[in-house]
Each structure stands twice: as structure tokens, then as C-alpha cells.
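Schema walk-through. Below, the input block comes first and the output block second. Nothing else is stored per chain. Lengths vary across the set, and this one has 292 residues.
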Amino acid sequence: MNVIQDPSIDKVGEALKAQRFRMLEDIARELSSDSVVFPTCFDVALRLRKELQNPDLSIPRMAKVVALEPLVATRLMQLAGSVLHSPDGTPARDLQAAINRLGVELVRTTALAIAMSQLLRSKETALFGDFAKALWGHSIGVAAAARLLAQTFTRINPDQALLAGLVHDLGAFYMLYRAAQYEELRMRPDTVKYLMLQWHESIGVSLLSALGLPEQIVNAVVDHDQPRPLPDTLRTLEDLVYVGNILAGSHLEWMHQDADPRAAQFGATSQRYAELLPKIETDAREMQAIFS
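--- output ---
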């Protein structure tokens, strides 16, 4: 991880605990007051997603709105021409055609995916180097897995599953961004990792609600890292996120934490869905290339 540590100026013991508690207090205050602060690059994409929530927005008008954000527009054109949505490689002729091909829900999700990617590249989260990149790669993997599981085994909208998988660890992204604003935590990545393990799920649920994501998406990410029996049949969005999280390697999101409580489930789950694994990996690479 690309963080320089200098123990001589770092807080330890009770002082470090107080710093941790201060960050958690600050986050709780922001979430409770709906004053969540993100870098400008993230805010732009979120505003775009909010505009696209208008149910009366026509496709031509949507294309004009998206065109105002060149990065999002470019990525949508790439996504529409990718093997994920054009097996024969036929490109979309223009942005309106791309939106028609992808569907409104996927356009909204793409805007959010790009926002997350930009957050990863911000000067704040960049301080955590490989850790942040691994977290992003894991999120893409869960999104790809949830989408394919929905397509193959359920009647759940695959684009909805993709979104749920993509944002399941948004709380962890936000905690990285906030931790970078505290000098002592910037120099203690292991401390930040510890805090994330303990708090990212509950913070993520509050954050997704504050950002106005649909209730079914918020509910799908609740306790996604807490071990529970594997579902015999995939029936809900929660099942897709939980199983997708395992297939994508839940332990990898924390850079090989010492003990993965679901290690045994990983083997059983990988065996059960073995036929999907190559496709999940291929789709994840494609999404990584487009969204990043």
C-alpha cells in the first residue's frame, strides 16, 4: 500500500482510539444531517444520476443530458458496443441508440460506476494505493457475478443486480475517503482497515439511503459480509449479492485478511456455480476496462 508511516509522529493508544472515534462521529453526523460530502468528480456524476431519475425524461432528452458529461457519454458508447451488450461487436451509431440498447437503469448505473471510479482516483483515496484498487476490483467482480446469477437463475432484473453488486461496499469507499482527511489515519492503513471491517456495512446502508438509491438496493446490501447459510435457490436480490460477494472472493476486498469467516463457503459456492466462473471473470474484466 502506498502509504508512508512515521511512528514518531503517529498517535497511539487512547489518542489513536479518540481519532478513530472522531472520524466515526463525523461520518454519523454527516449521514444524519444529509450533508454527505464527496469530491467534486463524484458529485457531478451523482447529480447526473439524479436527473436521470425523472420518469418523464424521454430518451432523446436523456441523451442530451448525458452528452453534457463527456466521460459518462464515452463510457456508455463503449458499453453499448462491448461484448456484454453487443455480442457481434456492432457499435451504437450515437448516444441515443446506446441508451436505447442499454436501457435507462443501466445508464443510471453507469453514471454511478464512473462516480465510484473517480472517487477511487481522487487524491484522498489514492493515498491508500493498492488497497483502494483491490476494493474497486472486488466491487466490479461482485457486480458481474450478481448480474450473471440473476440472468441465469432468476427473474430478477440483471441490471438491478448489477447495481446492487456494484454499490455493496460503497460504505468502504466512503470511509477511505473520509479517513484520508485525518493525518494519523492516513499513516495507519491497518487501523483504517480495522475500522472498515467493523463499520462499512452499517455506514454503507445509511449512505445509500442518503443518496436516494431504491429501497430494494439498500436492503440487498444489509449484512452482506455476515456469514449465513448458503441459499439452496437464488430468490432475492439479497441472495445474489451474498453469493456474488463470495464468488468474487470476499476476503480479497480486505487484502487477504487473516481469517475469512466464509472460506469454507467459497469452495462450496465455487463448485456449485463453476460453469459461470469463466464468464464472471470475462465480464468483470470488460466492466473494469469500461468503468475505469
